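Section 3.1: Structural characterization of target chains.
Under the original work plan, the team committed to producing a structural model for every single-chain target entering the pipeline before any wet-lab resources were allocated. The record below documents one such target. The sequence was received from the expression subgroup and is listed exactly as submitted; it comprises 155 residues.
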Amino acid sequence: MPAMKPSKSTCALLALALAALAFCGCRSLDQPASASFASVVVPNRSVDEIRRATQAVFVEAGYDAFSSGDRDLIFEKEGTRRNQVAHGNWMEDSPVRERVRAEIVPQNDGSLRLQCKAYMVRDADSALIEEEVRLAHFRARPYQELLNRVAARLR
């Protein structure tokens, strides 16, 4: 009996399932949605220690540091040429900025979770028309690496 060829719809469903798995990545499904972009858990350290280490790592990586509260940090730097092409307004001279919003969140066991989300910011020089475009989960790797450096520094 000859082997049956899968239909086009079966192949399309399989491709869609594989793409969904790729976009989900290997992150735990047990963690909260707010920590799903990039995060690390830091035991036995204070908010101030985590804050200082996070600022040091991001500044070393070329970011400017801003603060928006005790447990919230904002880092920003000029986007790359690739960011400008993908996210920029080609009609304006305003460069795209890369913005990272980090947060230190207390955990039930007494540890603290450092988590972040990243954005490309169009028209960052204009407070009236600035637009943050959140990066998709599959682009989290460089930010996870930065948070891993923070955790390593605090060990």
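Strands lie at 38-42, 64-67, 72-78, 97-106, 112-122, 131-134.
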